[in-house]
Amino acid sequence: MGQNIPGDPVMLLSFVNTQLRDHFSTLSEFCRAYDVEEETLREKLLGIDYRYDAQRNQFQ
Predict the structure, then answer these.
(1) For an engineered disulfide with 31, which of 5, 38, 55, 60 has Cβ 3.0 to 4.6 Å away?
(2) Alpha carbons 56 and 42: distance in angstroms, whole number
(3) Distance between first and last Cα of the chain
């Protein structure tokens, strides 16, 4: 993962959802800002059974 992004999937989930809630209106915006591959992020969180919900703008 990119700089300043947690590697642990559970910490990553918390970090990403907080950033999405407070600063970004889409996952794509978050990924561009943090220079992260969206598919890589989705796969990492899918490993702990979380999927991105675009309507809610969060992983759940």
Answers:
(1) 38
(2) 15
(3) 20
Nearest Cα neighbor of 2 from 37, 53, 43 is 37
Give me 16's structure tokens: 């990403």
What Cα–Cα distance (Å) separates residue 15 from each residue in 39, 42? Answer: 17, 14
The per-residue DSSP string of 8-60 comes to: SHHHHHHHHHHHHHHT-SSHHHHHHHHT--HHHHHHHHHTTT--EETTTTEE-
